[in-house]
Design a protein that fits this description.
Elements (H helix, E strand, L loop, with lengths): L10 H12 L4 E6 L6 H11 L3 E5 L6 H16 L12 H15 L4 E5 L1 H4 L6 H14 L3 E6 L2 H9 L14 E2 L5 H7 L6 H11 L3 H4 L9 H9 L9 H7 L4 H11 L9 H8 L3 H13 L3 E4 L13 E4 L2 H8 L5 H5 L25 H15 L6 H5 L7 E7 L4 E8 L4 E8 L5 H12 L10 E8 L5 H10 L1 E4 L10
Parallel strand pairs: 1-4, 1-5, 2-3, 3-4, 10-11, 11-12
Antiparallel strand pairs: 6-7, 8-9, 9-10
Length: 492
């Protein structure tokens, strides 16, 4: 069930969709975003609030014949006529021709929504070719077309390449529906939870509304809610991995993708290491990594300013929060989760040491770095207070990585205007004075030589407030401390 407040958090996206749908001219655009992020909810809300909107949803288990029949039935209900359902043979060309005739006769400002387009435009269905042909009429008739999908593969193949059949039809930039930010997740879902608890939830599931809606009755507390939503037999998250990957891969490719993803440890894995661990052919590894990168499921780190960016030397990491959590944590507890019928408290067993708060071995440290990197790369407006803390006054910066034989830097941010290289180290556990001093010394000793015109500033990002003595020592050492709250708050 959709949290009723979440539509409030989508006001900007709804406004953008409404402006497109009510424009007094034809339009063709794509609504894109991760699976489960709430695209369909927004499009149905658009249908509810704007006249003459026809919405059609494609299910992955439907045949082309079934989709054609379903479309015909829904269109005839929409128009109040029985034109398409009376036809013995249906094709997408015939259906789209009927739409053109109807619009031409009624002269309505029609908005056509094709949701989950990757399932509608199945291989050899003829749908994309028919769409391209129909647009010649629809553009003249001032029809608006919204194509929505969760598959990056579809958009790359059908719209992104020189040979793509739908290339050139789009009249405006894509409308992206992004996951909620960390601050929005706290505001709309868990306002009474500690920042540390909200951040850890985000590191597990990201800002995906469908996942967050599985966490019921937050007043019961963080431990109980996460345990019931994720670590019990009736939870969705063990099977969800196939639902996410099936968008981009067929059966054999899905198996290979899962094999490769299972090799991507928190410290990154190279092509050569993946090949050694899996025994897969190098060409298979290279092709699969390229696909996983193109589809936004993994990303690669290459040391900043390397003269030759040799992909063989790159390290690969999971980009999606849920995928990272699944392979680093959930998979190890699979059998226990499947047998946890009565919602026994399995989740606390995940913590490596309860005395160190919510610390999960081989997960929280690098996942916290992934969270900080995600906030910086997202470049949203208004910006989180993190940007203010880093003195990033605009989005003209690059988020980089750096390592060599002696040094590894968590995150490197170089701004193209102020010419400052910001070295950021991320530590999930809130340190005491001694441990904090160690972190400071490690950060100060990080060796990085930027471009000659750049200066260096150092930042230590911590998951909790720090003792006054550590703050004083950081100031003395010229290090700026970043607290967890800076990842939530928006700039004033």
């Amino acid at each position: 069930m959709t949290n009723p407040q979440t539509l409030l958090g989508r006001s900007a996206e709804l406004k953008e969709l409404s402006e497109f749908a009510t424009a007094k001219k034809a339009g063709f655009t794509y609504v894109r975003g991760r699976r489960r992020v709430g695209k369909s909810t927004l499009l149905k809300e658009l249908q509810r609030t704007i006249p003459h909107v026809f919405y059609f949803f494609g299910a992955d288990d439907s045949t082309t014949k079934g989709l054609l029949n379903s479309f015909a039935e829904q269109w005839d209900r929409f128009t109040g006529k029985t034109r398409l359902t009376e036809l013995k043979t249906l094709t997408w060309n015939r259906i789209f021709s009927e739409i053109s005739s109807h619009v031409g006769q009624c002269k309505i400002g029609l908005v056509l929504i094709f949701d989950e387009i990757q399932w509608i435009a199945k291989t050899k269905s003829g749908c994309t070719g028919a769409l391209k042909e129909a647009w010649l009429d629809w553009e003249r008739l001032e029809v608006k077309v919204i194509i929505c999908g969760s598959s990056n593969k579809f958009f790359l193949q059908k719209t992104g390449s020189e040979e793509a059949i739908l290339r050139g039809l789009k009249t405006r930039s894509d409308i992206w529906i992004h996951p909620f930010s960390l601050g929005q997740v706290k505001k709309f879902y868990f306002p009474k939870w500690k920042n540390e608890e909200v951040a850890l939830t985000y590191m597990m599931l990201g800002g995906v509304p469908y996942y967050l809606n599985r966490i019921n009755n937050p007043s019961r507390g963080f431990i109980q809610c996460l345990n019931d939503a994720i670590f019990t037999q009736d939870a969705i998250f063990l099977e969800e991995i196939d639902e996410v990957l099936r968008l981009e891969f067929k059966e054999h490719g899905l198996k290979t993708a899962k094999t490769i993803l299972s090799c991507l440890g928190q410290s990154g894995t190279s092509q050569a290491e993946i090949q050694k661990i899996t025994g897969l052919a190098l060409t298979t590894v290279v092709h699969s990594l390229e696909s996983l990168s193109n589809y936004g499921l993994v990303f690669q780190k290459i040391p900043a300013h390397r003269k030759k960016q040799n992909e063989a030397g790159a390290l690969y990491f999971m980009k999606d929060f849920y995928l990272n959590f699944y392979f680093q944590v959930l998979l190890a507890y699979k059998s226990k989760i499947e047998s946890n019928r009565n919602k026994g408290l399995l989740f606390p067993q995940v913590f490596a040491n309860n005395n160190r708060h919510y610390f999960i071995q081989n997960f929280t440290g690098k996942s916290f770095e992934l969270l900080v990197r995600y906030i910086l790369e997202r470049k949203t407006t208004p910006d989180p207070a993190l940007h203010q803390r880093l003195h990033l006054r605009d989005h003209e910066y690059d988020v980089l990585s750096y390592w060599d034989q002696q040094t590894e830097i968590d995150i490197l941010v170089e701004h193209q205007k102020d010419r400052i290289a910001r070295i950021i180290e991320c530590k999930w556990i809130s340190p005491d004075n001694n441990e904090g001093s160690k972190y400071l010394e490690e950060l100060i000793n990080k060796k990085y030589i930027p471009h000659p015109t750049y200066s260096i500033k150092r930042y230590l990002c911590l998951s909790k407030d720090t003792p006054p003595q550590l703050k004083a020592k950081a100031e003395e050492k010229g290090v700026t401390l970043i607290c967890l709250e800076h990842l939530f708050d928006e700039q004033s």
